[in-house]
Amino acid sequence: MTGTTLDDYTDRYAQRMRGMTASEIRALFAVTARPEVVSLAGGAPFVAALPLDAVGEMMAKLGGEQGATTLQYSGGQGDLALRERICEVMALSGIDASTGASPDDVVVTVGGQQALDLVSRVFLDPGDVVLAEGPSYVGALGVFQAAQADVVHVPIDDDGLIPAALAEALETVARAGKRAKFLYTVPNYHNPGGVTLSSERRDEILAIAERARLLVIEDDPYGLLGFSGEPMPALRARHRDGVLYVSTFSKTFAPGLRVGWVLAPHAVREKLVIASEAQILCPSMFAQTAIATYFATMPWKEQVKTFRQIYQERRDALLSALTEQMPAGTRWTRPDGGFYVWLTLPDGLHSKEMLPRAIAARVAYVPGTGFYADGTGGSHLRLSYCFPTPERIREGVRRLAGVIEKETLVRAEFGTAAAPAPSRVTWTHATHLGPAAGQAPAPGLE
Amino acid sequence: MTGTTLDDYTDRYAQRMRGMTASEIRALFAVTARPEVVSLAGGAPFVAALPLDAVGEMMAKLGGEQGATTLQYSGGQGDLALRERICEVMALSGIDASTGASPDDVVVTVGGQQALDLVSRVFLDPGDVVLAEGPSYVGALGVFQAAQADVVHVPIDDDGLIPAALAEALETVARAGKRAKFLYTVPNYHNPGGVTLSSERRDEILAIAERARLLVIEDDPYGLLGFSGEPMPALRARHRDGVLYVSTFSKTFAPGLRVGWVLAPHAVREKLVIASEAQILCPSMFAQTAIATYFATMPWKEQVKTFRQIYQERRDALLSALTEQMPAGTRWTRPDGGFYVWLTLPDGLHSKEMLPRAIAARVAYVPGTGFYADGTGGSHLRLSYCFPTPERIREGVRRLAGVIEKETLVRAEFGTAAAPAPSRVTWTHATHLGPAAGQAPAPGLE
């Protein structure tokens, strides 16, 4: 049956889909999968450093001996054995029984992303305000957009979210007659900012939030990947009721099993489970058992140490290359953990407009515009050091420095960028773009 | 920091959460996990029949040799190798290249549940009408409730959805000034009805839908699990543009990896990918590779034949036990595939009110009220024959017949049910309740 009248769906989409369109920049990013391009865009962890033979042996048992259980449906909240391991992991950030953390209040999710989506489903009506760092994690912005929420950015500096700016944002929102439902924050090794919220500020932020009855969504994928000293106590470790803590095994183990979690006050936890069941029925029992087994039986803390050493070496390579290569007027943050450096371009340059020329020069980054709900951020870009080798990182920075220099020269000469930007190039997410970028996730955030 | 003012969240939940509450009947169902209870409630496939040793060997390679890929992020649409296998599976139901099916229009999801949720996100605004069979799959009703849609049930008989009733429902909705966004239907071996839509009716339903510009969401988890003959051509095989086809590997392989899919017209597929990225970033690459490998290298069609034989034997056991044991006035459907029998109680009995007494008699079923958005359906219940052995099925029916007989007698004597129902027992989903019922998913549908 061809030639029907049903080929046009535009009058039937839900309103929430209006802002959610695919980006033409995806095509550009497919190019970054080519081996000749140095991608500093991706947030793919270096999973090849895992003890893959041992992981394979573990998987054999899970699919064989334990197959009748691991291949079956499981509960919507997540497997208890895994929730117990999750509590052990959180204890390293000060979130333990003494602050009321319990396996019973953990909900297992499909990566941290589903955790953010569930929290949004439970709390956000269209038109609600979400406060978030500016810049903020692009995947979270996609969730908030799907929830038809309005994001109000709160600026950060080298010590993370600025408390006075948060207080001011709350006042502005209240004056506008709107309601801020929660603050979304990545306190440790911020994506994309690379900065960490100082201990003093943690207490200040929590005090402000408590006064305003503002929930805090603490997203902490990188907390155990610090390069110096022990993890700082999490916001949730300091405040029992007002903080929902979200994290993931994507960076401490691997992202390919898609397992994350949220720790929530009991009443909220119940809502999250109901929302998750309506969304995915239950998380994968196989994936949950794999991670519970890995964290119960294998030297996972040693492995995290290995990851930290690899990432620290790459961070060092990136920072020293930036210092050596970057033209005057370029600035960047100095992360003490995690995956990202946030770079500010010389005056007048625009990271999104420059991207096609960077890719032509065989280097890729994520333009800063992706990390702001309002499309600002063009004077910034995000560089990732998690996946490429130090040598490739140095080569990538050399190429990028050349592009910026040329762009600056042309701009000085002609008062504009080197070439007109494609008229409708809009930015979408490539946070996790890694070795197989054509395959990589790209939440539809413009 | 204790004794905060932030322990009550009721004034901050999103409106969609109002109807989504946990059911007290969950506690009852936890009891069905006890070995002494025969559960005819669960929809858990009999995964122990899989060649688990071979699956284990396959998993070892996926986690070991291929770990650097399978444990990494992947694309939001899903892995191409898996989407190709999905097209081979769909071809068995007549959905092939000649009807425009292509791997490019497939989106891989976290089980069929996420597929239904994505479709709802893309199409449903609050207040939109969804047409669905009455009774309908409880997990789908949970999705539509979360989308704040109004479900209008269309009755079924032994040949499935009744075309005249669909036309009438469309008129009623139009007269009310409402808009039906889509018809949700399970044409093959209906859950919970057990019936299959006849070939003639398939064409009639599609003609009605096309005239009304009504999208059809065809949910087909059981299509390859028929007990006689080849699968009937799917609705999607007969109509290229107006049908979105949803299915899952949960019944042809196993549910524990949580992999399903949706095949959609190209423009819609793009929206689904964007919505999925905002929800889960990407599906598990490990799970996708496992299923793609299983379907590419192992005798999966033979395995499906094994499943069919097991389920047919159990269906036979259930039907013959019902014929032998059930008191007069009890009726039931005779499924030619799938997992479920839909039973109608003698006049005056109520399946939800009777459930506590059935569980006391060590047999469990799903009350019919779970399969109607409006809470009707109390004169029906769903029996599953997929998981228990034939012997256990016969014992379960014997116990259930005793409960119904006693209930009928007491009702004849006192004009009411045997005991007052707990005042606020409300029903929620236990579709997949199987051997580990305390762990089983239970979408929050009242």
Strand line-up of the largest beta sheet of chain A: 2-9-8-7-6-3-4-5
Number of domains of chain A: 2
Oligomer description: homodimer
- Major sheet characteristics of chain A: 8 strands, mixed
For the terminal residues of chain A, how far apart are their CA atoms? Answer: 36 Å
The shape of chain A is globular
Radius of gyration of chain A from CA coordinates: 22 Å
Order of helices and strands of chain A: HEHHHEHEHEEHEHEHEEHHHEEHEEEH
What structural class results from the helix and strand content of chain A?
A: alpha/beta
CATH class of the largest domain in chain A: Alpha Beta
Q: How much β-strand is present in the residues of chain A?
A: 5-15%
Poorly predicted runs of chain A: 1-6, 418-446
DSSP summary, beta strand count of chain A:
14
CATH fold name of the largest domain in chain A: Aspartate Aminotransferase, domain 2
| Mean pLDDT metric of chain A | 90
By CATH, the architecture of the largest domain in chain A is named: 3-Layer(aba) Sandwich
Largest interface: A-B, 111 and 110 residues
> Helical proportion of chain A?
25-40%
* Helical run tally of chain A: 14
CATH superfamily of the largest domain in chain A: Type I PLP-dependent aspartate aminotransferase-like (Major domain)
